[in-house]
Write a structure and sequence with these properties.
With about 400 residues, the chain is α+β, with helices and mostly antiparallel strands. About 35% of the residues lie in helices and about 15% in strands.
Length: about 400
């Protein structure tokens, strides 16, 4: 028999969600490269994004949680065979120990993808033969085999299409060059020998995704579990979730004001204390990827506006959510001018919350760390909806020991 649902306040739920995201306190997973691995292992998936307005999202996620983070650590973990990159729900980094749970997604790409023409099939075979004979390849290793002029950003030439399909189907894996270009290689060369390569059953896959989603989100609905497994159509997540709820392998949760059935892991602590730290987050952070969750749990209506037509943007092209404790206090549209080594803050839009001196000081400190993280030495503030707060920030930066210059 299933147990009675656990009833939580929204405050309790927010704290559970924040702790699951690794933002309950500074260095929640420790420091150094091992902390990076522990974080990826805990979240199960860290989204990768190529947008370079500020430092790329996957590095931003790490730096927000690991104070001494170095961008080369992700490459080192990949080279050591502890994490890998794949397009599971989106492009991202995953722990290698869970490698076999990527197989159902790869099977979908292989069996349900667009049928191959004979030239496409021949090109893929040619590429596989070349990689097996000569080693890793990049798109640039192939001649421009486009028959017609490009029609747009996603109009890839045949070699690129073939490489990506081989990657999605699992016949090739990718690593990254120092300039972030994809390098395609055989799984044999990148997957350690002791990794389990058995295809999971449909039940195993569903249960794995349920537990992984709950571990990363703290509290989640069937909707989020299905989202992370959306490429595997007809999966058994709903069926297995019902079984797990019946056997108390997951707990049902009721949160005040929310109707949807929610779930959490049975060992999840409900009375969590937050350190009330301030974090500048990536738009692609695990905390921000589900817009409706931000509304439901945090009363924060957030949207990344780089995908919004310029005339309709409210806050800026690449606004970054700013979290203080369990409250979103601002969103900051920033750009790193790498030639001038200056972080340009186009806009800081403060939410309708009153900030005390301690929170403001922590926000300023987070800004200074963010400048360093983006390899900048100076910062420029353009505008804000709260001139009083903006002036306090400017004063702290330019009338104190900061003096406008940060050593790299």
């Amino acid at each position: 028999m299933p147990m009675e649902p656990i009833v939580l306040t929204k405050l309790q739920a927010r704290k559970i969600i924040i702790e699951a995201a690794g933002l309950a306190r500074k260095a929640q997973f420790g420091t150094g490269i091992e902390a990076v691995y522990r974080l990826i292992d805990h979240l199960g998936f860290v989204q990768l994004d190529t947008n370079y307005v500020v430092e790329r999202a996957h590095h931003h996620v790490m730096a927000a949680r690991v104070p001494d983070y170095q961008t080369e650590w992700l490459t080192e973990l990949c080279e050591d065979g502890r994490i890998y990159e794949y397009f599971s729900s989106d492009a991202g980094y995953l722990p290698m120990r869970d490698f076999r749970f990527s197989f159902p997604v790869k099977q979908v790409f292989e069996t349900q993808g667009k049928p191959l023409s004979k030239p496409e099939h021949n090109l893929m075979k040619q590429i596989m033969d070349q990689v097996e004979r000569e080693g890793p390849v990049m798109v640039g290793d192939f001649e421009n085999d486009r028959f017609e002029a490009s029609t747009g950003w996603w109009d890839w030439r045949p070699a690129k299409v073939a490489l990506e399909r081989l990657y999605l189907e699992g016949k090739l894996m990718i690593s990254r060059s120092k300039t972030f270009q994809k390098v395609y290689d055989l799984p044999l060369n990148l997957v350690p020998e002791d990794i389990d390569l058995n295809m999971p059953t449909a039940e195993e896959y569903a249960r794995f995704m349920i537990c992984q989603t709950l571990g990363a989100l703290g509290i989640a609905s069937l909707k989020e579990m299905n989202w992370r497994s959306r490429r595997v159509k007809g999966n058994l997540i709903k069926k297995e979730l019902e079984k797990m709820a019946q056997s108390a392998e997951v707990k049902m949760v009721m949160v005040e004001g929310l109707k949807a059935p929610l779930y959490m892991l049975p060992d999840q602590e409900t009375n969590i204390e937050l350190a009330e730290e301030v974090f500048i987050l990536s738009p692609f952070d695990i905390l921000n990827v589900f817009r409706y969750r931000l509304k439901d749990f945090f009363n924060f209506d957030y949207q990344i506006e780089c995908f919004v037509p310029a005339p309709k943007r409210l806050y800026g092209y690449f606004s970054l959510p700013v979290l203080a404790g369990e409250t979103f206090i601002a969103r900051m549209d920033a750009k790193a001018d790498r030639k001038q080594k200056t972080l340009i803050v186009h806009n800081i839009h403060f939410e309708a919350v009153e900030l005390d001196q301690i929170t403001m000081e922590k926000f300023i400190e987070a800004l200074k760390v963010f400048v360093r993280f983006n390899q900048c030495q100076d910062i420029i503030f353009k505008r804000s909806n709260n001139e009083t707060y903006l002036q306090a920030i400017r004063k702290s930066f330019f009338e104190s020991a900061w003096s406008g210059i940060l050593p790299l």
